[in-house]
Amino acid sequence: MQPEFQSRSVPPPPNLEFKVALLLVLMVVLVFGSLAYVMYARGVFESTQRVVLVADDSEGVIVGMDLTFSGFPIGRVQRVELADDGKARIVIEVTREDAKWLRTSSVFTMERSVVGGTHLRAFTGALTDPPLPDGAVRTVLSGDATAEISQMVNTVRTLVENLQNMTKPDSSLNLSLDNLQTVTQNLKGPYGALGVVLGSEANAKKVITTLDQSKAAMIQVNAILGDVRTSLKSVDAVLAEAQAVGANARVATTDLGALREQVEMNLRKVEHLVDEINRKWPLARDTELKLP
Amino acid sequence: MRQHSLPRSGLGTLGHACVRSATSWWGIIHFGAVALVLALSPSTYDRGNRAAITRNIYASTWQVLFWFTVLCALISLVLIRIVVVTASSYGLSQYALEMVVRVLVLELIPLGAALFVVLRSGMLTNTGSTASPLHIEHVPRMIAIAFSVATLAAVSSVVALVLAYLVVYGLSPWGLAEYTHMVGRVFDPVVTVTFVLKTVWFSLAVAVIPLVSTLQTQHETARESNTVPQGTVRLFLVLVLIEGVSLAAKYI
User: Fold this and answer.
1) Residue spans per domain, chain A
2) Is this structure's pTM higher than 0.80?
3) Binding-face residues of A in 178-217 toward B, CB within 8 A
């Protein structure tokens, strides 16, 4: 490589000053352009409002991290400070343009994931609520995945201990399995499930004998029931005759009513005749009363 | 007479080496300070020196800018692609761009630009005349080398930022807002100031240390001519020191 810029004897290249001026202009444009771009990216030219989030623990929260709404960054953490009550105050600058997504009913969460940093998120259920005022202080809800892991580990540890207790040689489960094995062996025995239910073969034998006796008794009962059925048939015939007698009695009662009416009518006629005879009979009594 | 011919003791040799090293470092610092004052002095930019500065800037920057930018763009493209694909395969694509910007733009490109300028111009001082007055020969060269480091780093950083966007979002303009937000998140005030200061210090180190070491070496005796070039060792030591300090300022 030749040291071209060290020797003044080399003739200068064409348009040397123009090219160097171009380089200087390029450098100036790059420096100021980059500076302006970084300032724009940092939100220097944007109007912001402040939101203060109060948390029990600010671990993982760093200056410059985003506050997101529906996955879009709407604000940046400007400062993290310790309040007089021992709680962490996370001061966030939200651009005025994006402040419309924050309402008085908005909820703020701080989530710590296993991989990656802490995330600050805002959730707004009702966008019709009044907008969040400048300088509003809200309590942030914390969700810690690592905390869940420790909780899960505790639960799993308890589960494993229970499993160990269950699988011990003298555990209830093993004893139950032994009993189950005994039961299945008894099921395969001469008296099967009956022996298992009654506890011994002798009891099963007694039950079978009782069942045989019951069978004989049932035959006798069936014979008795046959006789009873025949007797009931005779009773049915008697009842039918009694029913016929009753019907005849009912008809006779009806005729007696007519007969009684005729008798009454005849008696009235006889009474009327007697009265007539008394009136016309000379020896009739004087029924007229004479006053003194 | 015999006593004068005996070799020096180890302690004496060590002390002598320390004194020489301290003197040498002080010479670098003093020369750099003088050169900086001269570079900031308006009288340096008279007609004769301006022509020398123009020639040096042309040689150190214009002649290499295109090829260095192309080379840097190719390496950046490969690194960006590797980082993005690897991060996506692990489900961490949201961190890929930030990692690319932090590693490539903030660390590798300024260091690469400084080393490239060292390799191209640092060796040239060995063949130059050292008899010229400081403001005639050396200051224009140092100004040009410092300008070269800053320009190569700035142009390559911008190209790498554009390439990172194109690799991730393609030609779509809809990722611009998110990308700008990410850049703003990375370039917080501390990182920005550290990045600028690091580039400036890289430029000064590359411009001053090789030249001063060469001048000091030419005053040394011929018996040390076969040793490792002291200027290169000192320069790499200073570059590593600046890089370490900048990393500590940003991440500690």
Assistant:
1) 15-41, 48-150, 200-251
2) no
3) none
